[in-house]
Prior knowledge:
By secondary structure, the chain is α+β, with helices and mostly antiparallel strands. It has helices spanning 43-51, 55-59, 61-75, 80-93, and strands spanning 27-33, 39-42. The chain is built from 4 helices and 2 strands, in the order E-E-H-H-H-H.
Amino acid sequence: MQLPTDIKYEYVSSQELPLLDLSSNSPLSFPLTLTDGKTIATVGDAADYLSSLNPDQREKSCWRIAIRMLNNALQEPSYLKAATMSFQTALVLDGILASPHPLDNH
């Protein structure tokens, strides 16, 4: 699955708040640093990373969830934090997230 690199969705909430945009340059809820030193900081970075997964990785449930949650966030920007956390979880489960590991303090 390859996510588009430049996506812009708009929505109006039930309370008629201003339109919110989510694009490839939109920051994730928090940056994710990988063991190779690369940082995934934007929606575009995440989409690029997901598009580089091989078919076996894409079949793993953690990555299927991360892909689905990013797609949901593109449709509804309020899901961006959940999408970032799902992405972080997949990175942790694959041993790719750099230390400090989120579970090291437990």
